[in-house]
Prior knowledge:
Helix content is about 20%, strand content about 45%. The chain is an alpha+beta fold. The chain is globular and about 45 Å long.
Amino acid sequence: MKTWQERITVMAVSKMYRDKLVLSGINDQGKWVRISSLSHYDLEDDQNLILKLFGRSELTCWSLGRTEEDGFVYEPTRLEDCLMLREPKPKLLNEIKGEDKQTLVKSYIDGGVDEAFKRERTLGIIKPLVEEVYFGWNALDNIFESTFVFRDKSGQRYKFVCTDLKWHYSCIFLFQRKPNQIYKELNELPEKLNKKDTYFVIGLTKPFMEVPGAFKGSWPLILGIHSF
Length: 228
């Protein structure tokens, strides 16, 4: 098992299956890193957040690398993927605050979806023009799901599922507490987001062989939403 130290600024906290989380961030060398299979408990130590949005943390990462099982060889499928050791615990070094958040996001913006996913990359940031927002129950997967219809800088139109954790909980709150208001809020949201300086952190799932996605077998996601 290969281990190494990383200092990562968290750019998105996303919901995976069940209660698992994914952190997407940028290390001190300016490269994207994706940390999968985390729990809510991994984000804090003695009730203090040690991994947080726009926080820069030091942690120990590991990767299985190339593995063989039952005669099959498994290769890491995404360039940025790694896992985190629970011990030693991560350390929160500092936080990006105020206008520095927007400056950081803009410094890593891509020209569009195709540029964000060029070559082997599966993470990036784009500036969208939001057209429609949906939220509701996905009966196939038995989950609440949100999707955004938007255009990127090239004018290409896309429809991505959104897994941003904060956005997901906001929609759940509206759905449960104000069910008659949620669709009005969703209808008004594109105009509100477009009036602000809004950015999406986007990423790709691992390839699905049974139901291949549009990007080399992977499905695209909005992992984080930043609006300034």
